[in-house]
Amino acid sequence: MSQEWLIWDLAGAAPRTEAKVFLWRCLAAPEGQFSVPALLEHNGDEVRARYLEVIRKLGELEINGESLRRRLQDNAGNNFWWMGLLAEKSPFKTPEIYQALRLLLLEKILRAASPPRLHLNTDERALVQAIGKMCCELGIPFSSSLLSPSGLARNLFAMFHRWPTLQGAISLVANLVRRWPLRQARPIQWQGGEKSIFMGSYFAHLDEAAVSMGAFHSRQWGPLPLLLTQKGLKLNWLQNFWPSDSAPDAFRGQLLSRRLNASSAGLGQHGFTDSYLGLPVLWKALRSMLWLRRQAKSLRDVPKRMEQAGLPAYLWPVFRPAWQSSLFGRVAMSNCLAIHLFDAALAELPYQPRGLYLFENQAWEKALLTAWLRHGHGRLIGVIHATVPFWHLYYAEHPVSVQGPVEGRMPLPDKLAVNGPSSCSALLAQGYDESLLIQVEALRYLDLIGQVGSSSADHRRVLVVGDMEPQGLRELLLRVRDASQQLGADWTFTFKPHPAYPISPKQLIGWDIPVLEGSLIDILPPFGCVIAGNSTSACLDAYLAGKPVMIAQSGASLNLSPLRGQSGVVFFESAYQLATALTAHQDVTEAEYSRSTYFHLDKDLPRWKALLGLSSASSETIQ
Hints:
This protein is an alpha/beta fold. It contains 25 helices and 19 strands.
């Protein structure tokens, strides 16, 4: 007789049992048990491709003679399907993606093995509903033990998330309070003419030394703005505000933008998307929200339609929070504001023959693309400014979504400027057409030129680099602190916060260690090792600078690191694993961190000059 199966989705070790045990949120499985996160990594290509296909087919579901995607497009061309969380596919915004991926893997396993019975232990009600439905479809007897959430705060949090409309209203008020001061950044003296160029960016990652002297230098754009200015181009910056050390709040953000606009070293005119907040935009956003709610009411039977179309309807309990937020919750309200803010900004902007913007396939980018076309501006280039990691699914698309018939395609820029062979290969593997991609220099990584890994650095001097996800950073710091207590007193730990989340370990977990600000490349030389969170790209900077890198990993989330699968990199799940890895320290060889496999690095920017028509070698320009 075959074994009963047990899925263990709770903190702590699974009980000893004769059942076949699958650990849902743990990477390291004891002998005789199986790790679902590890199996997902092993089957990553297949499961990711299946997930992309499910999302594409969900958007194409026919409802009353129209696709779901088409029903969520308004008369102005704004498409709320592509702006929604399900189509965006960001694991940072939609952690339920991880559940969906594991569920798709579980279906494959169950179909192959057909166990006599399956039992689930979890504290996630949606997971009970999803696996229960899956087992019903497969004819497998199912039972579950649901551990109810404990604690008043957790119960209130769960109740709050059942009211997406309330979330939308609260987020609207909170955003207005935080962003209203940015209205003072107007009027903006936008520049027109054939020499003008639009720059869509984030008002973050600024060089503190430059800002203190009234100059603009963004680490995301490197030397390109200065080059464009020297070539006589007039830069119009439309910035998404993000709190940082340079501008910790909206009031100081608009003050800084006005200082930059008054200075020749400001490299153009700087405005904020949120500067266009006002009663006209709010009124239009509320009207769009009402239209979206009406559309949502006509889509109540989507789970049933999924089942009829042969899609995995068992995913719906996991998809539901993202769906609700995208149609009548916090994300819906944010998207309604975005489309009218960008519409107002692009209507006021003089004709721009060319434009560049940071490409991450986020919802606001769809609003920008639609407004850009509506107001008749010229060619627009999306700029890949970082890496394209495997599980960053907002970069991944089903080929039909980016190469199929124009009517059904996702909104895209005219070209994508890709920063090196690694990102280019990743995008091609994730569905993009080669004709869309143009390889250019990696602007934010040019400081790597001339950097040489030093084996003379004391390996007991450890740099911990932060990321911008609070819970992940907290867990990282707790593990590093616990590991430090297992090492000798001659080990020292220093922390460098993420520019967009400037918080210290003392503030977060009460761990009082030195904190360093500034460029990571400038900070790195004296340190013998770097520890990073799972989602930050700073680990790649350190790795390509020749430093041994150790990255936190957990079965509770996807491996979002750009160094996933890279030889010479240590991934750890516990403080003990980290302490062991630190004491077994080895230098990284130059062959392992070959920068040319990742990025094009040339401070003269010949590829950028060719693309922008600034050199005679140009065969493809955006003019």
